[in-house]
């Protein structure tokens, strides 16, 4: 069932539990604009919870629907998933039923969030369901409560505002609770079984890195050392111990993801917790040692589960916490960040001097166990539900060229379908960008999109259509990036020439013989020190160097000499060269030093999608290695554009703009057109 056809926006599973009750209250008080329901195995308890919450907030919740769903009945869980866009799973410990819920959510294309603080469960689900969830367009997001949104989001906020290269962050948690405040038994139970199975984490994490994060994190010359088990902190003016919650493991996976998929410099992290006193710190460490020892044996685990109050010194209890105590609790997290004021161009570049910049950030909130947790998980669900424009897609816009068209005489512009497919193959969606529009049009549309691809084709660079449009887009993109608003450009063939023409403000092309020319890629010195090729793996690099894997279709080239004379070598870094049929060397791959602007003189899209043979199209390579090379370029640029945060203000406006509103014509059937499919436009 499509997401917009679901009966509910959000369903709270496990709403009769302690956490579930606070989640229901958060939804009822602050999110009355969405359709939501409660679910669990006991409808009577759910009805009672709705009445209790309604009485507490002075609101009638009788209209909230109840769904009967039991983890022992897979069909009931599946039906529950089918009914909602986002499932809020509050049924813990998650090691017992969480994976089944995640599996059925993926199968039913339902987004799912939970409040798990169990690293083994979280990492198992990511390992098993990452690719399947991605293919289904589904988010399965764990640890969306106090474990571990404040820490993870706090570090990400620090990274974005640091203004330099961030090397490390230490976090210090301070919890302020009234006397006799207790924590839910399910959290205690999760800790028992988590430690009992801790030995299983090492092989799990090895598999996670091999499958999802094969690119090893770059090491820093300045390692963040863990502090002693017990130490007095100047940062929080008190005694601290290591924080053994899931925060650090969650943050480390975020760092691996950001480096693997977003090419961001990873941050070293250590997490600590302030004790109320030295005596309290020592007592916590002693009881923690006893706890860890007891979890290794079945008898010890049984005793811990039967007598949580005794073995936790009253912190954990089977009795639900009292609402009045939770409402007066609070927390603070101190983030101590160290790094450098200078920002290096690549996340793998290493600073040779000691960190010279420190930043302190503070996050504060209400009771962490329940009130903050409810706020975090509900808003996680709402973000997934409402920010659809940021899900699993990147926008690209291709300029259309003015010309006369034999097959569609009334058309005013066109776009080869291979460019659209090229971007879609890497996970993007495409919208055509029109030429000869006012500057305000481009400023507006570029504030809603994530990048621009300038395609190849037959046109004049200094024309008032394609050339002038390209210049305006280039200027706007430059200003955006100068203001810190990431916006990439890509040029293929004529688009490559356009980028160079606009950057140099003059044509520096030289006639060459590169029509229907299949070549390898002759890398320039230092090509690996680039954003485009820094992650290029050796086997593919070898294929690029030694096989004909790209196809050229141009009669004009930029020679290395002209690149130097024009000053273009100050703006663009030359990453690769090629030779034409007369053995003249020309520049074939570039990237801007300062901006995310990239250009290739060849056509990676033709290798993937153009199959029509003609007198001028005889040598396009379609072998597996050439396909992999073309896909590498598509993946790279799409990944660059994913870094842009732009989006349309609403779905309706986006739908109107998408390329799906137009149908490509099978132009290859006419025999005179070497392009398989073409989009024609009336503007």
UniProtKB/TrEMBL annotation:
Enzyme nomenclature, EC number: 3.4.19.9
Domain Saccharopine dehydrogenase NADP binding: 10-141
Main location: secreted
Subcellular location: Secreted, Extracellular space
Alphabetic keyword roster: Hydrolase, Membrane, Secreted, Signal, Transmembrane, Transmembrane helix
Top-tier EC class: hydrolase
Pfam families with a match to the protein in the record: Peptidase_C26, Sacchrp_dh_NADP
Family the UniProt entry places it in: Belongs to the peptidase C26 family. Belongs to the saccharopine dehydrogenase family.
Protein name in UniProt: folate gamma-glutamyl hydrolase
Organism encoding this protein: Argiope bruennichi
């Amino acid at each position: 069932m499509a997401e917009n056809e679901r009966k509910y926006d959000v369903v709270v599973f496990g709403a009769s539990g302690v956490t579930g009750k606070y989640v229901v209250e958060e939804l009822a008080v602050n999110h009355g604009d969405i359709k939501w329901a409660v679910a669990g195995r006991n409808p009577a308890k759910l009805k009672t919870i709705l009445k209790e919450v309604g009485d507490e907030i002075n609101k009638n919740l009788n209209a909230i629907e109840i769904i009967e769903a039991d983890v022992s009945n897979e069909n009931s869980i599946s039906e529950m998933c089918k009914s909602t866009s986002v499932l809020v799973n509050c049924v813990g410990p998650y090691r017992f039923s969480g994976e089944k819920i995640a599996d059925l959510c993926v199968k039913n294309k339902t987004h799912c969030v939970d409040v798990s603080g169990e690293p083994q469960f979280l990492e198992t689900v990511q390992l098993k369901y990452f690719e399947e969830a991605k293919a289904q367009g589904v988010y399965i997001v764990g640890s969306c409560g106090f474990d571990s949104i404040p820490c993870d989001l706090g570090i990400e906020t620090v990274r974005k505002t640091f203004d330099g290269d961030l090397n490390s962050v230490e976090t210090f948690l301070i919890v302020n609770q009234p006397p006799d405040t207790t924590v839910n038994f399910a959290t205690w139970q999760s800790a028992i079984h988590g430690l009992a199975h801790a030995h299983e984490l090492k092989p799990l994490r090895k598999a996670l890195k091999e499958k999802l994060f094969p690119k090893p994190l770059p090491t820093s010359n300045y390692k963040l050392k863990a502090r002693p088990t017990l130490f007095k902190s100047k940062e929080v003016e008190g005694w601290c111990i290591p924080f053994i919650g899931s925060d650090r493991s969650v943050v480390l996976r975020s760092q691996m993801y950001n480096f693997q998929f977003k090419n961001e410099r990873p941050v070293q992290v250590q997490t600590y917790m302030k004790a109320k006193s030295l005596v309290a710190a020592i007592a916590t460490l002693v009881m923690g040692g006893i706890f860890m020892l007891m979890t290794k044996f079945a008898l010890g685990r049984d005793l811990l589960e039967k007598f949580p109050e005794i073995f936790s010194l009253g912190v954990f209890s089977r009795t639900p916490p009292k609402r009045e105590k939770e409402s007066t609790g609070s927390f603070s997290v101190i983030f101590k960040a160290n790094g450098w004021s200078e920002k290096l161009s690549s996340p793998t570049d290493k600073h040779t001097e000691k960190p010279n910049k420190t930043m302190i950030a503070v996050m504060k909130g209400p009771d962490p166990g329940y009130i903050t947790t409810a706020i975090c998980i509900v808003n996680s669900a709402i973000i997934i539900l409402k920010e659809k424009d940021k899900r699993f897609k990147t926008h690209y816009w291709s300029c259309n060229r003015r010309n006369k068209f034999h097959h569609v005489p009334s058309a005013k512009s066109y776009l080869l379908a291979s460019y659209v497919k090229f971007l879609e193959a890497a996970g993007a969606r495409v919208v055509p960008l029109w030429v000869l529009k006012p500057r305000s049009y481009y400023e507006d549309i570029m504030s809603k999109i994530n990048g621009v691809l300038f395609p190849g084709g037959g046109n004049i660079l200094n024309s008032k259509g394609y050339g002038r449009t390209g210049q305006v887009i280039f200027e706007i993109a430059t200003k955006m990036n100068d203001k810190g608003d990431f916006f990439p450009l890509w040029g293929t063939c004529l688009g490559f020439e356009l980028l160079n023409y606009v950057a140099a403000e003059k044509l520096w092309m030289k006639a060459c013989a590169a029509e229907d020319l299949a070549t390898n890629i002759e890398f320039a010195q230092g090509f690996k020190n680039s954003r485009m090729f820094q992650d290029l793996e050796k086997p593919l690099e070898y294929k690029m160097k030694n096989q004909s894997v790209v196809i050229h279709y141009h009669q004009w080239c930029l020679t290395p000499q002209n690149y130097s004379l024009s000053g273009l070598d100050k703006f663009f870094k030359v990453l690769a060269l090629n030779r034409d049929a007369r053995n003249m060397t020309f520049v074939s791959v570039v990237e801007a030093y300062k901006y995310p602007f990239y250009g290739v003189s060849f056509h990676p899209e033709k290798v993937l999608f153009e199959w029509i043979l003609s007198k001028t199209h005889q040598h396009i390579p379609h072998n597996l290695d050439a396909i992999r090379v073309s896909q590498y370029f598509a993946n790279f640029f799409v990944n660059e554009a994913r870094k842009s945060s732009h989006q349309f203000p609403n779905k309706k406006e986006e739908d109107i703009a998408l390329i799906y509103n137009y149908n490509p014509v099978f132009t290859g059937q006419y025999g005179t057109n070497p392009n398989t499919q073409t989009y024609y436009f009336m503007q």
